[in-house]
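Q: Start with the shorter request: fold the first protein.
A: Done. Sequence, then structure:
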Amino acid sequence: MKRYGHGLVLGKFYPPHAGHHHLVETALGQCERLTVLVCASSVESVPLDERVAWMRETHPDALVVGAVDDTPVDVHDPAVWDAHMAVFRAAVPERVDAVFTSEGYGEELGRRFGAVSVLVDPERLRHPVSGTAVRADPVGCWEHLAPPVRAALTRRVVVLGAESTGTTTMALALADHYRRRGGVWARTRCVPEYGREYSALKLAELRAEHPGAKWPDVSFHSADFPVIAQRQAELEEEAARDGSPVLFCDTDAFATTIWHERYMGTASPATGEIAARGRGHLWLLTDHRGVPFEDDGLRDGEHLRPWMTARFLARLTRTGRRTVVLGGPHEERLTAAVAAVDALVAEGWGFTDPLPERR
C-alpha cells in the first residue's frame, strides 16, 4: 500500500534531467497518484509546452500540467510566496497530501499546501547534475538527459548534394570522426538516406514483373516524396534520441523537396510542410565539380548535377539555412566539414537565464 494519496512534484525542468526523473519516480513509488507541475517563466528559451511534453513522455504514470510563473523566487518574502502559491493552486486545485522536493524550500511549500514535505537526495549524490549545469554544458551532462530532451538538443548536420557527389561517404566519415573522440561522442550516429532504400524497393517491385527492367524504367509520382520525407524525418528523430550531441544525416526532408523538383519538375507543398518541421542546424553541400560520376544502378542524372548543385545552394540560401559548400578532394572536404561542425557545437545551445532568485 502506498504511503500518500495525492503527491506533487514541481519545478522548472529547464531542461529536465536525471535528478528530476529520480525525484518523480521516488514520488510515484510512494503516492497513489502524482501530479507534476512544470513552471516556466516567459523569459526562458524552452517553451512550456515542450517541457510538459518531455515530462509526459518520460513519466506516463504521472499527471503532468504546466503553468507560467513570472514571479522571481524569494523564499524569505511571504508576499512572493503568496504570488507563487496562487499560480500553483490554480494549476493544482485539488488537495495535496505530500510534496516531494530536493530543495530547502520544501518545508515551506509543504506547509502552504497543508501537506507533508518529503526531501529526496538534496545533496545530489545519486545524480550529480542540475538544470544550471545542463544549460551551461549540455555536452558534459548528456548522459543525464532523457531521450526526448536529447532529441531536442541534438545538433543535426545534413549532408546533401547531387547524385554521385560523395554525400554518403562524407556523412559516414563525419560520424566515424566524432565517434573516435570517445566519451559521449562514441554514440554519434549517421542516418542513412531513406530515398535510396525506397528507390531500390521500387526497382525490385518493377523487376518482379519485368525481370529486365533498369533504373530509367522506374516511374516516380508526386505522392512518393512526402512518404520518403516523412520516413527520413522519423529515422532522424529516432537516431537523435539515442546518439551523441551531434547527428549526421545523409540528406533530409528539405533535400527531398529538391529531388521532387528534379523528378517531377514542380514543387511539392506536402513535402515542403514536412521539411518545415525539421530541426536541422547545419547543411553541408557536396559540390559536383571534381567528383567522377559513378552509376551504381540507381542513378541516371550526370547531366543534371550542375543544375542540382545550383538549385540546392539557391534554396538553402533563400530559406536562411546555415550552409557550407564542400569542394576539393575528400580529405579537404572532411577537414572543412569538421571545422564547421566544431564551430556549431562551440556556439552552445543559447539557453536564456531563468528569472533571478532573490537571496
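Q: Next, the second protein, separately.
A: Sequence, then structure:
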Amino acid sequence: MIIINKTMKGNSLSIGIVGLPNVGKSTLFSAITKKQVDCANYPFCTIEPNIGVVAVSDKRLDALAELLHAVKKIYATIEFIDIAGLVKGAHKGEGLGNQFLAHIREADAIVYLLRLFPNTVIVNTQPAVDPIKEKEILDTELALKDLETLEKRAGALEKEVKAGSKESLKESGAVNKALNFLKEGLILNEQEWDEEERKILKNYQLLTLKPRLYLLNGEAGEKSAASMEFFKKNNLPFLVMDVLAEQEVIDFSAPERESLGLSAESQLEVLIKKSYELLELITFFTTLSSEHRAWPIKKGTKIPQAGGVIHSDFEKNFIRAEVIVWQNLLNVGGFGRAREKGLIRTEGKEYVVQDGDVIVIKSGA
C-alpha cells in the first residue's frame, strides 16, 4: 500500500509504501528515491520507516525556467515512506500492526502494493500469488480498525444526543451511517457522502475513507489478466509495474529504455503522477528572477487560498492577482509580449485556479 499525505505548506506530498510482507515495498522505495535500504528476504525486514524525498518532474516548469532564465527551479516534492508489512490481525496489533496503522492515520490517500510476481525465491506469506486476496486482507484490516474507532465514538454520541446536543445529532448520523457501511463489508471511500458528512468523518482519520490506487507488482500478461480484469470491472484505479525491472533501469534515458523494448517514460514517473492525481491535485507556477516554482493545490481552490500555500499573508491580505496560462506565456516569449497582447488577466478573490496557471499575487501590508 502507498499512502499519500498532503502537506501543502512546504510544497510537499507524503507517500508511504505499505503492503503485505515481501511484496516489493522496499524495492519500490529504493527505486524511486535511489536510496539503498535493507531488502532482506524475510517478513518485517522494515521496522522503522525509511523516508526519502523526490521531485515531481514537470516539463512545464522546465520550459518556463529556460524561457525566463531562472537561477533555480523548485518542483513540487513527494516524501516517500517505506512502512512495515501488514498481516492478518493487524488491527489487533498482530505483526507490527499498531505501528502500521499509526503511520497511515495521517495520510490522505492509500495505494495498495500487491504482489503479482511469481518468484518462488522470495518468501510469500500467503499460500499463493493472489493480488485480489491481498487486497481483501488489507481492506478487512483497515475496516476492522475503523469499526473499532467508530463504535467507541458512537456510544458517547448516543449519550450526547439524548442530552439534546444538536451538533452531536449531526455527528451521530454520519458516524452511524459509516458504521452500517462497514458492517456490510463496504469501503467508505466508495460510498456516497455529502460535504458535511465528509467533514465530520475526516476528524476520525478513517483508513477506509481515504482514496486509493492499486499497484500490482509484476508483469502484465496472461497470468495477470484475471487480476487486471477484476480492477477494470470494479472501476478501481490500478497500475501494473515490474518494480524490480524499473529499479534496474532507473538511471536509463528515454532512448536507452526504448532500445530495451521499454516505454520511454519510466513507470515510476507514471506512479508519481497517478499518486498526484489521486488527490485531485493541480499545479500552478510562480516566477521570480531568482526562482521558478511549482505549487500543488487541490482542484477547485480559489486564488486567495492558493496564495496562502505560498505564504499565509498572501491569503490574509489578498488584493488581486495577475494570471496567465503557462503555454501562452511560453508561446509569446515572456511577460513583456504577453502584456502587449493582453494575455495577462487580473483576477479577484472568486477566481478558481486552473492547472498550469502562472500567477503573480498582489497583497496588502
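Q: Describe the second briefly.
A: The longest helix spans residues 131-162. The longest strand covers residues 291-298.
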